Hints:
By secondary structure, the chain is mainly α.
Amino acid sequence: METLLTLLALCGTAVSASAATSEDFLRAIRANDLETLRKLTAAGIAGVKDKLDWTPLHHATVFGNPASVRILAEAGADPNARNSSKATPLMYAAWNLEMTKILVEKGGDVNAQAADGSTPFLVAAGVQSNGATIRYLLEKGANTKVTSPTGDDYLIRASGAQDAATLRLLLARGLDAHRANGSGLTALSGSVVCDGGESTRVLIAAGADVNRAAWNQGLVRNGPIESTNVTPLMDAASCGEAETVKALLKAGARINARDDRGMTALMIGVAMDSATVDVAKFLIASGSDLKAADYRGDTALDWARRFGNRAIIAALEKAGAPAKGLTKAPVRPAGYQPDLATAIRNASALLASSSETFLKEGGGCVGCHHQPFAGYAFGALQQAGVQPEPRLRK
């Protein structure tokens, strides 16, 4: 078909609308072949869509080429066409200011909603450093009171983009820093995840509740701990964000609050591959309860030993932290360096004898999704003085 269209074009023969299929448009868009795209649109684009009702304009916005979007829009492509998800091209374009302007100028509805509740503004708000597009949509009448089916408002959606300027703009428009979605997540919950910084400070200054816990947080970042009722402080500790931890504590975050597993921010913070000794030391110095134990009786020191960060273990031991003692560092002769295969066998034996949940959690759904075996094995190897090859740690 592509060869036929090319031959017809070279011969000066008009391409019929029926001959130009969605696949023809998609090939030209994917290749950024603007000349072919113009020839296809000249033949007419009315009714051209794929099996999922995606029009060429939908595809052009996803591929992110403003020139293709402009050609299609100026040829009469409908900026409000709906695909099978009821999404319009503007929703897919909202991460890019130039494409957004092209479609809005051609009549794109800034308040259209897809089947999942998405709007152009909800999409734009979730893209980092997208403040210019957000401001443009506001100028064009975007409704800031819309929420997604999960209860996300624009402030909650924007919080994960780590764009403080956008948060300030939305707060100035009257969005509530206290509001939570259906899972209990607030904008502050989203902002602290692994890059809090200025966004977190903006929300704290706006009066966000630093102790509001999300009842359904799911997997805590970078570690095998499934938890609910996670506070922003726990999230910040799990990411090793020292400055965010300090800002939250200064604002009144409860340092010894517990999640549903009985874990504190300190316990969560040391039970991560992303754990940092700076966060651990600050939480210790700020009054973390070193004797606190989770529902299985494990303390912060137990968790730290399990993950094998020697600096954190030393900091906890120096502070007098107790341990249940199930996970102990093995005693090895000076200079002991087994080969990797032996080290893994030794680690497995250590785990089987020291972890009461090893056999239960070492396989099946839990083993796949939360990977306790990988986490525990890595910690045991570190304690034994063995560093796995880098490719095996990824």
